[in-house]
Amino acid sequence: MPGALDGVRVLDLSWGIAGALGVLLLAEQGADVIKVEPPGGDPFREYSGYAVWDRSKRSVTVDLKNPAGVEAFHKLADSADVLVETFRPRVTDRLGIGYDVLHARNERLIYSSCPAYPEGHRLANRPGYDALVQASSGQMWEQPGWRPGPIFLYMPMPSMGAMFLVPTGIIAALIAREETGRGQHVRTSLFQGALLYTTQIWSWVPKATSFFYFSVAKSYPPGVHQEMLFEVANNEWVHASVMSGLAPVKSQDAILDLPDASDPERYMMLSAEERAALTPLRRAAYKQWERDKLIDEFRANNHAIEAVDTMEGSLGANGTPHPQLVANQMVATIEDERGTTTQVGVPIHLASTPGAIKGGRPALGSDNDDIWGGLGYSPDDIAKFTGAA
Amino acid sequence: MHALDGVVLVDFGQYLAGPFGPMIIGDLGADVIKVEPVTGDGMRMANGPFFGCQRGKRDIALDLKSERGREIALKLVEKADIVHHNMTAGVAKRLGIAYEDCKRVNDDIVYCNTWAYGLEGPLAHFGGLDPLYQAVAGLEYESGPVHAGNAPMYYRFGMTDTANAMLSVVGCLAALYHQRKTGEGQELWTSLLDGGAMFASDATLVNGEPVPRPKLDVAQTGIDACYRLYETNDGWIQIAAIKPAHWEGLCNALGVPELVDDARFASASARAEHRRQLELLLEPRFKTKTAIQWMHALDDAGVPNEPAVDTKAGELVMFDADNERLGLAVEYEHPLLGRMRQFGNVIDFSETPGLVHGPPPIVGQNTQEILAWLGYGQDEARTLRDERVVYWPEDDYSWPI
Fold first, then answer.
1. For B259, which DSSP code?
2. Counting C-beta atoms within 10 Å of the first and last residue's C-beta, which end of chain B has fewer, N or C?
3. Which residues contact B44 (CB under 8 A, 6 or more apart)?
């Protein structure tokens, strides 16, 4: 059974994480994605993540500074359902491949733009690397750290928000096109991606009580949300949880041989001072346990707990991948130019039209002959506008 | 016209990872009906996070454990395009609103469950909260960072809640598109665990060995001497001096032109190798001026930079004139709490604009109109309310929000 987006052709002109990952979600639900790169390749190609984010796509090159390249690209866009780009607002207009030009030629085209900031915003002409948007949107100030002040988010949060908004906007526009027969310009930004993650922490409601805000507000040193992270034996860590949805068999404190007063559900309701008095006791109890033994014991008694793993650890770098990731088919083995690789799988599980990885990252321009040739160009023409000549 | 005009989504979810996806689908124009227990959504006590996941929904308060409550729920499902929830294993089945039950009354329904762990497997029966999946994905390890000797640290943005919810949005819309093309509905699922894995998607093993990645430093400032936060004499500034020209501009702007050709720092890889040495030279320079002074100096030198803004818990974002004008911050009137603001449109459409419908509903706010829509007469509705199968607010409203 083909994927849910079977028959949808996407041209991916994006640079950066948001476009690459957002389009990957479309590719692995069945869309035919062609990554369109300049003759030298997407400048981020060398960073390791892109070998994952650009898989399941085909690759063509084209020189958009060459009029013959622009003309060829117009023909390619005539055959497309979707185009994705991440340049600053108006850059594609200057290249001759803006929304107005392409939509006039192909009115079914859905044109998705994801710059750093929305067009018309005073920040729109500021440089747009992810960490700069973390800074300008206030996210760095919101994250607690081991020192006062803003904290660099290792997880590129604005991009990791926008990567969901890009495919959301595109598929919504595909659904609308079923009614109207027309495509449209769909725009989001890294800045809007950052806003997506503020839903739990930012709302201005002066008349509401602030119980939640006080319990999880940013504080220095980091506050209550750190308190369920425990060091265990051998310099390893676990994150325990007060909620598993299951009825406990033995309490966490009974497992840890702690006095009842530090029972975690009660513990979280204690005052900061009361908690501080109990904390050394709890921390010492956890230190006595080997990580995997404690996890087994917690789970056998219906308590939720996880190892604090490295990014590669859950993929199996230390021998065993996370068993539930394996069950979810989220640990995939793929051949690409680097060899046999272990990567994340497909995270959206549709029962009748299951998604699938369609192969490793394509070599630069590997589909030039097929795609440009299919539009009627001779090998000589192709060499000229792909920069191979 | 809005992109999802006419689409009806029935949202049986509670807490965060369930309801957030439907809210975003509502912003695209869908009619989202929140089915809330007559005892209220357990998240209402938390205020902010509840508001952040519920705006613009219509609300029917319903006892799903009663026979007639289930009957009403299935009548809603009959009218729906999408059913969405985050119940733990077996609960939907017990309540009689599992996929098979819904498909029986609506053959082409799109049915989505957002799990904690997943559909099947060793931990599928466990629920769990966001930080556990941050732990699995390596987020807590990397943000400590543990490799530098710090304790792990959790991100306070509900990372995997949001990821799970947004994956479900993409999945529901893909399934709806397929349904519009073929007439076939289907079941789908996503999870907090898999949402977390997307954040670690740049991690790979090649022939079993991890591929090196840039690492966060012990002071949590950044991943490279030229891609990090620096403290100025009044706050912090993030720089992103990535290209060769940026490096030269940075040295000149900071008044250390002699570093441009210093062999220790002559290339990006040399700068990475001598990161700490370079930082010790740059850190005192940044302390000599304010963040805004550095912003202008670096702008003039062509070096990407941005002062790190303290938005006072978002208030300055919600009242920013550009954000207001562009619809990124919206205000509405809550029936009990008056003025409130939240983030607005996160996607802009040229032909089918987004639709931020309004504030989060109070418990059972739309029960009566929804019952009427389903064909229940006023007397019947009153009886259902008297028997606590449904609830709508009269003078007995007991929730603060």
1. G
2. N
3. B50, B363, B399, B400, B401
With tokens 């769909």, the residue in question is: A186
What does the alpha-carbon distance between residue B375 and residue A86 come to, in Å, rounded to a whole number? 48
**Helix A157-180 vs helix B159-182: angle between axes, to the nearest 10 degrees?**
20
d(CA A197, CA A157): 8
Distances (CA, A) of A384 to A34, A38, A62, A370: 20, 13, 9, 16
Task: Inspect the interface and report whether the beta carbons of B202 and A197 lie closer than 8 Å.
Answer: no
From A52, A200, A314, residue closest to B136, measured CB to CB: A314
Q: Is B155 helix (H, G, I), strand (E, B) or coil?
A: coil
Per-residue model confidence as pLDDT tens digits over B32-89? 999 999 999 988 887 888 999 999 999 999 999 999 999 999 999 999 999 999 998 8
Look at chain B and count its residues: 401
Q: Model ipTM?
A: 0.97
Q: Report chain A residues whose CB lies below 8 A from the CB of B333.
A: none
Of B178, B194, B228, the CB nearest to A330: B194
Token look-up 């029960």 returns B367
B352 to A170, A233, B28, B30, B328: CA distances (angstroms): 12, 56, 8, 12, 17
Between CA A159 and CA A19 the distance in angstroms is 8
- CB < 8 Å & 24+ apart, contacts of B66-71: B66/B389, B68/B384, B68/B387, B68/B389, B69/B389, B69/B390, B70/B95, B70/B96, B70/B97
| 3-state SS, one letter per residue, for A163-198 | HHHHHHHHHHHHHHHHHHCCCCEEECCHHHHHHHCC
Q: In terms of pLDDT, which residue wins out, A218 or A154?
A: A154
The residue among A61, A48, A40, A62 whose CA lies nearest residue A20 is A48
A129: closest CA among B279, B224, B128? B224
Measure the CA–CA gap between A284 and A231, rounded to whole angstroms.
9
Quick check: B122 and A120 in contact, CB under 8 A? no
Burial of B234 (0-12, 13-18, 19+ CB in 10 A): exposed
**3-state secondary structure (DSSP) of residue A110:** strand
* Phi, psi values for residue A249, rounded to 5°: -85, -60
What would the two tokens of residue A333 be? 């083995």
Q: How many CA atoms lie within 13 A of B83 on its CB side?
A: 27
Residues 6+ away with beta carbon under 8 Å from A196 = A161, A164, A165, B162, B166, B343, B346
In B, which residues are within 8 Å of A296 by CB distance? Answer: none
Note the pTM of the prediction, 2 decimals: 0.97
Asked whether the beta carbons of residue B318 and residue A202 sit closer than 8 angstroms, the reply is: yes
Q: Are A76 and A371 in contact (CB under 8 A)?
A: yes
Continuous segment of H or E residues that includes residue B277: helix B275-286
**DSSP letter for each residue of A15-34:** -SHHHHHHHHHHHTTT-EEE
State yes or no: pLDDT of A204 exceeds 60.
yes
Distance of residue A367 Cα from the nearest chain B Cα, in angstroms: 24
The pLDDT-based confidence of A31 (bands split at 50, 70, 90) is very high
Give dist(CA A348, CA B197) in Å, integer. 12
Buried b (16+ CB within 10 A) or exposed e, A120-134: ebebbebbbbbbbbb
Q: Which long-range contacts (CB under 8 A, 24 or more apart) does A94-101 make?
A: A95/A64, A95/A65, A95/A70, A96/A64, A96/A70, A97/A64, A97/A70, A97/A73, A99/A185, A99/B350, A101/A74
Q: Nearest CA to B331 among B311, B312, B353, B359? A: B359
Sheet containing strand B205-206, edge to edge, reads A331-336, A339-344, B205-206, B209-210
Instruction: Give me the residue from B138, B168, B328 closest to A118, CB to CB.
Output: B328
Q: Where do the H-state alpha helices sit in B206-274? A: 244-253, 268-273
Distance from CA of A105 to the nearest CA of B (A): 17
Listed in sequence order, the residues at least 6 apart from A134 whose beta carbon sits closer than 8 Å to its beta carbon are A140, A152, A153, A156, A157, A158, A194, B238, B308
User: Which tokens in the block code for residue A24?
Assistant: 């990957």
